[in-house]
Amino acid sequence: MMRPTDLTLAEGLEALDKREISAVELTQAFLEAIERLNPRLNAYITVTGEKALADAAASDARRAKGEARALDGIPLGIKDLFCTEGTRTTAGSNILGGFVPPYESTVSANLKRDGAVFLGKLNLDEFAMGSSNQTSAFGAVENPWSRANDPDRRLVPGGSSGGSAAAVAARLAMGATATDTGGSIRQPAAFCGITGIKPTYGRCSRWGIVAFASSLDQAGPVARTVEDNAILLRSMAGHDPKDSTSANLPVPDFRAAVGRGVKGLRIGVPAEYRLDGLAPEIAALWDQGLEWLRAEGAEIVPISLPHAKYALPTYYVVAPAEASSNLARYDGVRFGLRENGSDLKDLYERTRARGFGAEVRRRIMIGTYVLSAGYYDAYYLKAQKVRALIRRDFEEAWGKVDAIVTPATPSAAFAMDEKQDDPVTMYLNDVFTVTANLAGLPGLAVPAGLDGQGLPLGLQVIGRAFDEETVFAVGGAIERAAGFTASPQVMA
Amino acid sequence: MTYTIEGETGPWEVVIGLEVHAQVTSHAKLFSGAATAFGAEPNSQVSFVDAGFPGMLPVINAECIAQAVRTGLGLNAEIHLWSRFDRKNYFYADLPQGYQISQYAHPIVGTGAVEVTLADGITKTIGITRLHLEQDAGKSLHDQHPSKSFIDLNRSGVALMEIVSEPDMRSPEEAGAYLTKLRQIMRYLGTCDGNMDEGSMRADVNVSVRKAGEGFRTRCEVKNVNSIRFVMQAVEAEARRQIEVWESGGEVTQETRLFDTARGVTRSMRSKEDAHDYRYFPDPDLPPLVLEQSWVDQLKASLPELPDQRRARYVAMGLSPYDAHVLTIERETATFFETVAKGRDAKVAANWVTGDFFAALNRLKRDISDPPVTAEHLGELLDLLADKTLSGALAKQVFEAMIETGQAPSVIVEERGLRQVTDTGAIEAAVDAIMAANADKVAEYRGGKDKLFGFFVGQTMKAMAGKGNPALVNDVLKQKLG
Amino acid sequence: MSLDAATVRRVANLARLRLDETEVEKLQAELNGILDWIEQLQQVDTDGVEPMAGGAPVEVKLPWRADAVTDGAQAEKVLANAPDREGEYFGVPKVVE
Ligand SMILES: [Mg+2]
Ligand SMILES: [Zn+2]
């Protein structure tokens, strides 16, 4: 048998079923890998080894009794934005201090219900605000990949789910939960050579996930294969009466859709995504991906998303506005960090100045400003209207196509010491992904090739609302055609 | 006549608008399943939603929506089938989320009107601008510790209806009458208990003053006044303060003030100084609130009769406007009255309820919800009067016995033998005996001393232990005395 | 629209963020950079466009729950993370109203 940490999630389930390995052995293997590699990668903020082993033992007992559930015994990492009952939850921020939630997020509870074993809490950009995982108060995460011609240069894993993507790529978890507000699942998945899906807004409950921007946040999985994502999403998703924005729809068998093929599907190619100065390697990969799909019987259809180019500035009004309000609760009164002050206002200001990092403060400032008297119409209301137009563009596209394929990111992973000065340059990372958040649509990133430096590059598949099945079908076809087998330099 | 306050420069008119915060009657909070009961241990009725914990999300309570719609219908107001929740952002120790979920741009209820009756019998219509649903904040206690305030979040998230009036009131009396009427309507509807002592109704009082014929001048908002009497006092105190400012050549600045009930003055509220920019925006956690017209119609059809309609019906039944008013102030009183009056003479029932029954409530310090005599028993008593089993005097005697024993009047009548005597033979016998024993008085009466008639009535009734039918006693005496 | 230092301070005050003078300067430059970039939204013709509030890709309505007490009665859990717990209360510096 393969080394346990090399198994995909689907293979892991099979191995467990055939008793080729026990959940305890599997968990042990991942805990050892974490112990060895996490000091370097810093993917985990908190490792819950003892609890994981106990849960794995319970899982083995269930399996022995023939009561194994959908994910029984599968070791997962949980992004530290999901509240986990009894386990410290930080959101990558100092302001949550030693916050120990007395409740379990719906998504992680769903995974537990299905028998998953949690290895620990994964690093992220502070409050999920970032595209490089460098804004975490618990230190940057290192991408397990490196450039062939510059192997010592440490690269970012992307963000905000950088810990999730790095852990899965380096085999420190079989899969992980992640969240995506502007690209925070798809961009790190692409940077780390793995697969991730942001489902349709409302597919996964937001209850118990530390909120960044409530109208954009959506939880989803990252894992090494499209099929593994389909398996995980089926467990994570579902209607939750505790989230008023949760969709009351049945959860399809996503796994069955992965192998469906693309014959007869119309694949849209948005003209506006062919940005000036798009890296030739990215453009070539995109063309290659479309060629694979055509070869499999799909029809490639040029489309227009005329407002897509305004998606990023729209996002940088809407997301900070919501964040400025969502983060008001971190005030040092009921939980988290407190810095004492001479009066209440002083306490608030000191607590929040000390507790939030620079990027979070910057976004709170923008968000507060765009909502404030005199600026609301020019910024916030305007952005909401442009957002409506972006959604409308997609609605029109769905008259012509069944899915849209684009690059996942405008570049491969960059180095930790690059791109740090100018916030806007950093924001451009999400240029391809953010439209799906604004329109609430599902988007999947799948590795499709390597750049000249040997770094992974991903393609993105965007689908209709609540049509993740087609997204998985297209993603599965790309995955099969690409035959992506490269693995990172740092790996268990 | 217009109410004015006399200043050094002449009379000033007062302009008043009220924002009433009325606690919605519901078991659970607006956006969480925590209880709303008054007087619980601190922080014992708090969900993580109410405490603003990370990742917590609001889910709306259907009954609170229904209560807001019922209230809107009771205020003759427009019901908006599409409304939305917005966030009002500000920092305060008892505001755990750092924002209040409210309805700013699109309230559930639009314009309406309330008719109030003033002391001189004149009615006046006060416009309602809007009614919206929002969350209450927690409670800060400032007197528990020398250097700290203590926060209790039990109230945090309790549903409030904010009812905003037009600036249509012109005197403390009108403000008082409006609040009384609003409370009455909500108590009838069962949508707010109106209990101002427990904070279930508070008013923000907007006051400005002006000279006759002027447009509006700058107003000030006196926050959180918690009794009708204090609202009336606060209006006057704030109006006088503003008059003084204007007359001394100053300018009233728009601000939030507090009413100091002990000193009877308003003062500036420091903590609200910089909270003017609330940065309202649609709450992304809550999709729009959409109502079906058929659902609203159902609520409307099941609405109880409101005080105005009920009062009009009572007057049509023959009650005096005053009795109709008194009987409809509280819904329970009206219900009590109607039970008593059912199938009986409404006027007699009204007299008994507003007379002997109210007197008994007062004397015993009891409330209509805990009456000393049930409406059913009181009704039976009226039946005994109507069928002449009891005389008026006997009925009063039986009524007192009902209060004492809680027994039905028929039981009391039987056990104590209080049935009035209508047997003319027995009355004649009694009269004969009295006349025989008082031959001198009979002669005096017959000699023209008419006043003695009362003496004979009294003696006869006394001899019959009060049970003689008064009319028959009169008849027999008149006949026998000649 | 360009942000001056006074606006940066006013916004920081609204957001309850304590800034020292060097931070004001740095943020002023950064925010102006971001706002300049956001300015391109003004090019979009949005006449007659209904603003999109909320993230749902399709029209949705607010779901309602029944009026039942299903939560609360957990003061210990609510207070467990408090930086300053005073008996059954949260403690804060004294507030003057
Ligand atoms: Mg007010
Ligand atoms: Zn209010």
Number of helices of chain C: 3
- What topology, given as strand order, has the largest sheet of chain C? 2-3
CATH class of the domain at 5-42 in chain C reads Mainly Alpha
What ranges of chain B have pLDDT less than 50 throughout 5 or more consecutive residues? none
Number of helices of chain B: 15
Secondary structure tally: strands of chain B: 17
**What is the chain-wise order of helices and strands of chain C?**
HHEHEE
Report the radius of gyration of chain B as a whole number of Å: 30 Å
Content-based structural category of chain B: alpha+beta
Q: Please report which band the strand proportion of chain B falls in: under 5%, 5-15%, 15-25%, 25-35%, 35-45% or over 45%.
A: 15-25%
Report the β-strand fraction of chain C as a percent range.
Answer: 5-15%
The 3D shape of chain B can be described as: elongated
**Poorly predicted spans of chain C:** none
First-last Cα distance of chain C: 36 Å
Q: CATH topology of the domain at 5-42 in chain C, what is it called?
A: Histone, subunit A
- This entry's quaternary arrangement is heterotrimer
Helix content of chain C: 25-40%
Average pLDDT taken over every residue of chain B: 94
Measure the end-to-end span of chain B. Answer: 60 Å
Structural class of chain C: alpha+beta
Report Rg of chain C: 22 Å
Family (chain C): Belongs to the GatC family.
Protein name (chain C): Aspartyl/glutamyl-tRNA(Asn/Gln) amidotransferase subunit C
GO molecular function (chain C): ATP binding; glutaminyl-tRNA synthase (glutamine-hydrolyzing) activity; transferase activity
Catalytic activity (chain C): L-glutamyl-tRNA(Gln) + L-glutamine + ATP + H2O = L-glutaminyl-tRNA(Gln) + L-glutamate + ADP + phosphate + H(+); L-aspartyl-tRNA(Asn) + L-glutamine + ATP + H2O = L-asparaginyl-tRNA(Asn) + L-glutamate + ADP + phosphate + 2 H(+)
